## 1
Amino acid sequence: MSSVTFVGEHLFWGNLGHAAVVVSFISSILATISYFFAEKNPLDQSWAKLAKATFHLHSLAVLTIIGALFKIIYSHYFEYHYAWQHSSRDLPVHFMISCFWEGQEGSFLLWIFWQMVIGQILLRSAKDWLNPVMAVVMLSQVALTSMLLGVKIFSYKLGSSPFELLRNVMANAPIFKSADYLSKVKDGNGLNPLLQNYWMVIHPPTLFFGFATTVVPFAYAIAAFWRKDFTKWLKPALPWALISAMVLGAGIIMGGFWAYESLSFGGYWAWDPVENASLVPWLILIAGVHVLIIHKSTGNSYIVGVILIITTFLMVLYATFLTRSGILGNSSVHSFTDLGMSGQLLVFLLVFVLMSIAMFIWRWKDMPRSAKDEEIYTREFWMFIGSLVLVISSFQVTLTTSIPVFNKLFGANMAPPADVIGHYNKWQMPMAIIIGILTGVAHMLKYKKNSNEGLKKMGIQAAIALVISIGLFFVFDLKNFFFIGLLFAGVFSILANTILLLPFLRGKIKLAGASVAHIGFGVLLIGVLVSSANKQVISINNTGEAINPEFNNKENVENIYLERGKPNNMGDYIITYVKDSQFWVNTYYQVNYKKLDADGNVDYEFNLYPNGQINPKFGLVANPDTKHYWGHDVFTYVSSVPSQKGEAKFINEKTSQVKPGDTIYTNNGYAILQGINTNSDGENVDVNNFKVLLGAELKVYTLDKVYDAMPLYGVENNSATSYDAFVEEAKLKFRFTGVNPEDKSITIVSSEKDNSGDFIIMKAIEFPMINFVWAGTIIMIVGFFLSIIKRVGDL
Amino acid sequence: MKKTSIIALAIIAIAIGAIVSMYGDASTYEGFEVSANNPGKEFHVVGVLNREKEKYYDPQKDANYFSFYLIDEKGKESKVVYHNPEPADFDRSEKVVIVGSMEGDHFEASKILLKCPSKYTDNQVQT
């Protein structure tokens, strides 16, 4: 290898990037140590100065890594494995950003970047908590930057570098024998088509910002153990916890929205391990925030609150381990690459778990406790119960998601439940009901005051909510009576919190963040319930044709066969696959929907353009298209297309002798001969070649449209030439084959294009009330935002 | 008895319930033989496509009928019927995980997961 000098490589950027990785790793170690000693020796300012300097160096190094990697992707330096594997020349710039985090190294880099930004914010805001908090944050940064090292220490490969050269990754490939191998690497592998979506540009940064922020409350909690100061950290840590809850919540639902808008599994949530892995930390964080607020108001429940805040961060690490170690293997539809870092990831997780346990043991006796038993008619009691329900809910999700881990640990042979969604729903639905109701109940009671005077008011509200729920039950035409419970939880939560909110609407809205967030939760609950319970596959195949006896079609016959141009009945719609068109790498299939009213007349119509990318590596990658109405969505995607379109074939040929005014009938419509044109000058026909060139002026009438067509007939001495006229949309072809001087008629041969090889297989789902899901989430995020403003104002 | 203790007990009870339910609902990875002995019960079967035998999908006749032959990890073969269109990229799969149950002479798959490790690590430079 070393004897070859390769030409055309841009080694500078890789060397720069790799050097920056090493600098960022070493500087994060130095910063951790410096912050540690700065905390131990508060009188010696030199440690704090050194810490700050190394952290700035670290930040600079992180920005350099990102710059170098982006340069490599942007300039198509395919000598780098990362650029070759994740990008290609035809990608627009915004998708190049997505290439950045398609690979694991890039998503670690994103996390590192956010944690660095958070460090910079802490530097300016953490004041006297800076040193211990930053020591913990930088320790986590050490772990993360080590994932990018890609160096061999003895025989163990530490991390995986995004600056690895293609020729080193595939050292044995014969292509690298030649010095100018780069001239043969024309293009990269490209970005996974599923990620070629706008949501994939903004969803990962949001989610990773959410993940990254969980380190701050964790670091404050550890710092509190360290300083044995169990009160002062709460005030600065709480806004961070709320930011984390808001951003992580937004990131999770963005993932759901991406799945809904661009994946063809038909929904926004599938209880997939990857989704669960981000949901669990969020649930625990929400519980933790509530318990910390209880503690701030009453002085109780400190230990539980701290456990939850710490567990949030540990669950983020556990999620990282699950999704990146390859352990999920057969249990998820997501594909995971095992970069051989599972050991390293496990060490990362265990270090932080052991550190947390050690802190608890060390300070167990010093932590504040309340000896008093809880009173029932207080706000804190029910908030606490609600938090515990959230914990149980996250416990159940973690348990089933961890089945592959149990297999590994105990050598079991378990597989995820066959009916995954049913399994989770039967646990999570009752929990959601309890939580929804508690968000209404807890606010009626007061902190530290055991009084039941609010009970009567609550009873009246509950009664109103129950009446509304029963009404909605029939409006939405729900079948399962269990759903009244969910509806009630949602309606009661909205009603009770709206009443609480009203006094704050004039001016003091930022005090009402909690009420707003809880209203959002109520709306979300109703949206989730109605959109999933009444989700209806409308593309049920109802042709009734069973040709093969094996086609017993007992259940999931959910796809419809659409021949191009041939209208089909589908539920209340008449749908037609009109045509396909190519845009960049995607094929868009225009599907026309005509909604029928009760009398069978067309009420309104619209077109959807589900698209597919016939990708040489991935096969058909389908993206749905959705028509949004305020009350429901019509969701459509192409599940299969013919692998190869056949040559156009024309059938039902028919010869007619016609005079002007006569009609030619075909299966696709009829044509009337308007007249015979003697001065034709057809586009592709040279008039000078013929003595006479005749054109038959035809008006073609289909069910809903009129077209003009003019087949030509040219005569030169003894020979005659016919030129077809083809009406693409009507799929009709006309050929002018002769003139009959006796009766002044002409001969027209009509034929119809056979489209049986041109079809799509499509699936369509109607989601009612799905806008409630998005609206509820947005309201919830606004609520978090108001709370953050208030808490930051309190600092 | 303090309320805190009652709550703690309730939580332990629910947690045990969650564990039991996980065990109860969990499917298992089995071969066709076990599946055939328990008709109607759902299993996960891991296997490879038998490329010698023909897979069948004719959307013009029925867009929701796809059948193929799978050889499980113990080497036993069975016909598999999937009432959905043929999944994209089916031919390229190295490993197939099907979820479903044995129905008479064939396996009714309700879910198909394709494992194409080559998707991300297709380390072949195309020139």
Note: Residues 28-120 of chain B form a domain with the OB fold (Dihydrolipoamide Acetyltransferase, E2P) fold (CATH 2.40.50.140).
## 2
Amino acid sequence: MRKTLRFLLGDEPVEIDACNPTLTVLDWLRLERRMTGSKEGCAEGDCGACTVVVGHLDRGLLRYEAINACIRFLPTLDGCQLLTVEHLKAEDGGLHPVQQAMVECHGSQCGFCTPGFVMSLLALRLNETEPSIGRIEDALAGNLCRCTGYEPIIAAGRRMDEIAPPETDPFLKQRVATAAKLSALQDSKTLALEGQGRRFYAPATLSALAELVAAHPQATLVAGATDVGLWVTKGMKRLDPVIYLGRVEELRAISDEGEHLRFGAMATHVDVREAAAGLSPQLDELMRRFGGEQVRNAGTIGGNIANGSPIGDLPPALIALDATLLLARRVDGGEIERRALPLESFFLDYRKQDRRPGEFVEAVLVPKLPDGALFHVSKVSKRFDEDISAVCGAFRLRLGPDGRVSEARLAYGGMAGIPKRAKAAEAALISQPWGEEAVAAAISALPRDFTPLDDMRASAQYRLRIAGNLLRRFLIETTQADTQTRVAGLLAEAAHG
Amino acid sequence: MADARRKLDIATESGPVGGSLAHDSAAKHVAGEAVYIDDIAAPEGMLHAYLGLSTIAHGRLISLDLASVRAAPGVVAVLTAQDVPGVNDISSTHRHDEPLFATDRILFHGQPLFAVVAETREQARHAATLAEADYAEDAPVIDIAAARAAGGALVTDPLKLERGDVAEALAASPRRLKGSMAIGGQEHFYLESQIALAVPGEDEDMHVFVSTQHPSEVQHMVSAVLGVGSHAVTIEVRRMGGGFGGKETQANLFACVAAVAARGLKRPVKLRPDRDDDMAITGKRHDFVCDYEIGFDEDGRIHAVDATYAARCGWNADLSGPVTDRALFHMDNCYFYPAVRARSEPLFTNTCSNTAFRGFGGPQGMVGAERFIEEVAYATGLDPLEVRKRNFYGEPGRDVTPYHQTVEDNIAGHVIAELERRCDYQARRAAIREANAKSAIIKRGIALTPVKFGISFTATWFNQAGALVHVYTDGTVALNHGGTEMGQGLYIKVAQVVAQAFGIGLEQVKITATTTGKVPNTSATAASSGSDLNGMAALDACETIKKRLTEFAAKHWQERPEDIAFLQGRVRIGTREIAFRELVQAAHIARIQLSATGFYATPKIHWDRKAGRGHPFYYFAYGAAAAEVAIDTLTGEYKVERVDILHDCGQSLNPAIDKGQIEGGFVQGMGWLTTEELVWDEKGRLSTHAPSTYKIPVASDRPRIFNVELLENAPNREPTIHRSKAVGEPPLMLAISVLHALSDAVASVGDYRVCPRLDAPATPERVLDAVERVRAGVAS
């Protein structure tokens, strides 16, 4: 066990011996360090005013990512580098190219969201050269600005690399040195901290994790904290103990195992997207629209499943793909026992999952699409980017040689208390020719599958209508290649040519 | 004052006025160095307050047990109405309908009941949840329909505008139709939530740092709740992290609670609500229902309009009177109604008290006007743009508004024609219609809509401003005025005016925080008036100083006053040229006063509300926008693909800043009319109380093709500051083009024969509803 939290704040090594496990990075910066450049706009990871950049070692390489400081717990920064807007100016007081571009393009008005935008653009610059407008939009999807209308900020995103090419960026020039410093902070010991009478554990190995979860079955398991963070900032919950999964390298791995892809539970949405894009452009687009960039950098596939939300974006797609969930726990004698179950059976009822005491999500196995299978995902929300689904529909069909449906997996989010298959609609499709008639029959079966709710996102009536119309969209996209069916996003842009 | 105006048109040499200078704080914004209230280093001994809120929307408070709150860790004090030393009221209209803390009647969910003060904000926030309140609950009245059904109680006096005999004109119209439109509200979502920091001083002094657009009103409110004179209270704000009207009156609560706590405890106290609480407590843009009857002819000419604008005002009057008035003032937009009657219905509801929001009712009035046009267009089969043109204000006889002001500066026709040409509207419209016929699912739509927005506070006495200018002996200048900076670039614009007046560089002008201690009795920075009023007041102060300097120089160097000129970077005195600094130093030695106040009051305006007549606006600002959208007829999803804007800023003080206002205002208006939907549940709780559920536009929502131009060669006809025009609010209404482009796309599914009657906000759900309604309408 190690009792000291260690990370870099810019270049400065920070060591903390006692820390409230759920102290947010933002509160630590603003209240304890008096670094007030990062702002609190919403305290729920939706506005991006608190955006900071975290550097961490990923298989030995230094990787920079924008995250929301307002819902990230400070002890989860162990072994990382934290960069804030205060770290950007040169020693002579000169503005960093990102800052300079924002000034030149008139990218700030009230200025309150600006530090967050600057940090999101910095992360983009450190990772990509010559980003397209679409990529800049994606990188900024988690940053709200109420003044500018975004146009000048996008322009700044185009301008920054003209001011100075990314390879000249001080953070990239120091990359090797920083990586070495971070490397010195890595170890395989469990970090165990206490503060305000509450405990925090960050194991570094799977066996240490299993042991801790077994020893503290009531512990809150924290992955990306993009949901748990709100239990603290909005629900004012006092979590104890907290077990953080982010240091367990095995859990981050993504591997191609032939028939399927294996995603470690801690694979983040950006990494999932990269791997899943190969499975289907539909998945690529779904993952592009997952939260904002900060949430995609922090949130994980395991967390998105384990929190059991009825409106999580990934579960419908994974259920349609017939994914298998791997759960693990330590049993007497120290062995790790694994349990595999179809993902759809993990979700029992609203916010209730089939997770046994001591168990944690270890991985998700996602089968590749069988030859000839048809696959579709649609997410419908009020706002296109950085919104939660009103309805998410994911469908996988297989057709027999006669053109009739031989297998149908129709999964929906937002239609029930859990992500769920539409069994009646599936039955209506089976053995029918894939066409108008079958789709009409499936649509009229949907009310037997679902009794959705009215809420602030959509009415029940709209949800049912959309659920059906997404099947129509699926049919059109698989049978009428020339018909345009999307107004925005990658699929629309691909259709436009 | 007279001097200031006379000098306006004398363009000596090019100076900072008219230049696209960066926002004065831009370099601080991007470095995280701009200081907002929450960033101010905590004064020694500072405590944190937090509000305890009602958990019902309507009823009586039977008892309030605060023992657990008091006992919570870190708690120093708990305050209720009994602890308010002055009056327990912060009603900005002096109607005494807005208690600081509820005592008996509960009128909305989230009404402040008490405040708890603790060592840390976290402690205070946690303690505030521990109160045990016992209520006698009544059924809440949540929306406009319910308010009408319950008898239609009003929060303030309604307004009626009338010109001509409407009943007769309607009866005589070749055609007439009736309709109704729902227009949604809007959360401000300023990125910096409400915040105040009160620091007690000696005697009864209280210094409050507060994120407010209206320091003078906060001063009055704080002095009232403390029971002290205004002279004991100083309000200061360097900048806000956004305001948009949401900090015109809504900051009062937070400043007053912080001040009451600071007074009682003799320690500095800060109050910053969590975003969700801010959204639950504070007022928003009013949602309206507009019921209308229109008389018109086959040529698309409107003969008469009879309209009622009913608004959900919430639990007290706040600014609902002037907001609903301004809705009526804009129910004409650019159109002449030969006979017209318009009535407002400012309804009481058990919801947060709706308030100022960029446009201040004007946008809702104008959305109604554009619906009238659309109705006539579909009824006659004409292009809505053609109907717009046929109904523009025009020659005498067609130039009087429903409030009997003659439109003297009408350029709507010119702006529309110019934009129509520049954006190739007609060809694109034809191409879209052709393409729609071949596209089964995705349909495109286009619309070009104009804006005419009245500039001036309709409360005539608000149209005044003061400034204070100090010239120091090194030639640097400290500038202060009553206007507040919320991102709109007011400070830089006024600084440009001052630098130009003295012929000095901008770096020589120090822009200082707005404070009631320097410039008293100011108006809210609102109604787009900031630069018009404060620019003129500052110029007036500069002219006073320049007059003294000129007289001194004439005497000192034995030249005629008319041979002395303040050029850029130097002063010409006869044949010699010296630096401004040299002149100032010489004047100081000669004991010339180098400091002056300035003042400005807008001329020409008057308004008789009872009679519904007058000249409430000094001038109008114009603009037009053409939007093109694509909708998905299976889901109602849409994308705004292209927008072209031509907007009238007069002779812009700062084109970059003005362009920022236009783009930002447009996108904010687009959010209002599309994805921003406020939802209250049956208990009166706001369901959309955070950005996770309330969706303002993000980067990808802005149109990818976004051509924004300032109307060229269009100096204000009135002698405003350097002939510029106000720009804060008018561009928001350019976004009405998006609503109408969506409507045009929807109409395609009915071959453009049925008016879609698309209400706002046009969420994907509403768009799909409209698609299905139009299809059904064609089928029936």
Note: DSSP finds 20 helices and 29 strands in chain B.
